[in-house]
Amino acid sequence: MTAQVSTSSGSARASAANPALASSAAVWPVAWAMARRSTVGTLRIPASVVPMIVMPLFFVVAFGGAFSAVTMLPGFPTSNILNWVAPFAVLQGASFAGFGSAFSVGRDLENGFYDRLLMAPTRRVALMLGALLYSAMRAMVPVVIVVPAVLLAGVTIDGGLAGVAMLVVAAVGVAISSGMWGLGVVYRTRTQRAGGLIQVGIFAAMFLSIGTVPLSAMEGTWLYWVARLNPITQVLEMARSGFVGQVAWAEVWPGLVALAFLFVVLGTFAWRAFRRLDQ
Amino acid sequence: MLFPLLIAAVNAASLNRTIDLPGFPPVDSFLQFLLPATVIQGVLFGGIVGGADVALDIQNGFFDRLLSSPVARPAILLGRLGGAVVLGAVQALFFLVVFVVFGATIEGGVAAVAVLVVVAMILALAVGGFAAAVGLRTGSQEAVQNFFPLVFVMLFISSAFFPTTLMNGWFRWVAERNPLSWLINSVRDLVIYGFDGADAIRAVGIAAGLALITVAMAAGQLRRRVRAV
User: Which tens digits make up the pLDDT trace of B85-132?
Assistant: First the structure.
């Protein structure tokens, strides 16, 4: 926290001279210090690191093994189930990165540390940005675990580096979105015991999409309409674009729009609760 | 109870077209295929969560007070496991009603329902026994709940969510040798094909075998803890 304290006091001094300029300049160093603190806190507890590594791999193995036959469905976009499952496993891991971030903020709120952060002479938005920055950084874990693993298992990524880049964009976007959702919940409940509620929201958003099969295979069911309206479907199509063919702008732009939509809605949900924290 | 139902609802909708794939058992719908697995999944998850209560009793000192009271030692364990068995029956009936309301058919009729409920009760005893054994051994609620992912893995690498005939490689090899697959397949046959005495005996026998092992484990851990007091 040394960096944070020095940054905060620096911000206060600078604010006296030119408040607008100095406070905006101090936001990112404080956010970075917050993200760094969360990262160090996570690395200190092996029990929290192991699931981050094991769960996405288990997801690939479990879904890839149990549902390998779904590729035989008419119109399925790939013949290798791992091409289909790997991006979903990465996004699933990324969504839980956001959960982890919100959970640690819930702990800080419970033990009173967050009140001390709120009293610090810095722009408050840096506290929220720090948590989201941590979510985005943690989203890289499932990417660097799953992609090499499926390449070793014989997967060919037709989209190449562009395909992996789209997966990274989608993973970071999902992690930030789930972080915003989680922060919105813990800012309101002020307890990490709200973790169950956060998980239910994330679980529902991820599974009520095209995680297992494409939209065409769901036609005629209630899930078809839910998945079609779920923004995660577009994000998942963007993440998968390079894994089931060449990256196509027609699949990328709806994913980017869906992420922008999620940022606005969930960001507002989190920000409104954050502003009421000391009331 | 909601988590298994949510999984079932999503899978039933997203995988319904797979029932036409060659090699898929002759089911009316994917919902019918999922019915036995959802009951067993609910009992497994509920058993682990409920089983953690023994560890909670140890953690908060209530277990020591029970030991110092003039009650027979086995009654402490039997009371907990008895509760798990009743809960297993309630869960099974609840899932069955929900599935039937949403259109799943049970070809084996009332007899199959009875077997499914009995299997759920015995399986609840098995899971409760396992959770109690871990709880009595460690005295930690967290240690019991740490077995939750293991149950999840066992369930996934089985015939619970998809037929093993449509799996490949090592995954299929493991799934076909998973006792949960044997249990689920036996009960599933009652639901899909109609009542058959051999299937019923096999299902009850597998659940009873698992229960015998885990209750013996729990009893052994209870004796060990009583001796240590």
Answer: 888 899 999 999 999 999 899 998 999 999 999 999 999 999 888 888
| In a domain? residue A240 | yes
Residue A246 lies in a domain: yes
Report field, pTM of the whole predicted structure over 0.90: no
A221 occurs within a structural domain? yes
| pLDDT tens digits, one per residue of A197-223 | 888 888 889 999 998 899 999 998 999
- Cβ-in-10-Å burial (0-12, 13-18, 19+) of A179 comes to buried
Q: Is A26 inside any structural domain? A: no
**Which one of A85, A88, A221, A226 would you mutate to disrupt binding with B, by most B Cβ within 10 Å of its Cβ?**
A221
B190 CA to chain A: closest CA distance, Å?
A: 22
Tell me the per-residue pLDDT of A149-182, one tens digit each, with 9 for 90 and over.
Answer: 999 998 999 999 999 999 999 999 999 999 999 9
Query: Is the Cβ pair A66, B15 closer than 8 Å?
Result: no
Tell which residue, A241, A244, A246, A207, has the closest CA to residue A227.
A207
Domain count, chain A: 1
Q: What are the distances in angstroms from CA A4 to CA A25, A29, A33, A187?
A: 14, 8, 6, 21
Residue of A nearest to B24 (CA): A69
- Residue A62 is nearest to which of B13, B15, B156, comparing CB atoms? B156
B161 inside 8 A of chain A by CB: yes
Q: Does B124 touch chain A (CB under 8 A)?
A: no
Give contacts of B15 with chain A, Cβ < 8 Å: 67, 70, 212-213
| CA A188 – CA A186 distance, rounded (Å) | 5
Tokens of B52: 């953690």
pLDDT at A111: 81
Q: What distances in angstroms separate CA B155 from CA A16, B6, B37, B216, one per listed residue?
A: 62, 16, 9, 23
* ipTM for the whole complex: 0.79
Which of A203, A213, A222 is nearest residue B15 as measured by Cβ atoms?
A213
**Residue in this structure with the two tokens 């001094």, named with its chain if needed:** A13
A80 Rama sector, left if φ>0, alpha if ψ -120 to 50, beta otherwise: beta
Q: Coil, strand or helix: which one is A248?
A: coil
A69 vs B contacts (CB less than 8 Å): 18, 21, 23, 162, 166-167
Residues ≥6 apart with Cβ < 8 Å to A61: B171
Domain boundaries, chain B: 2-15+27-228
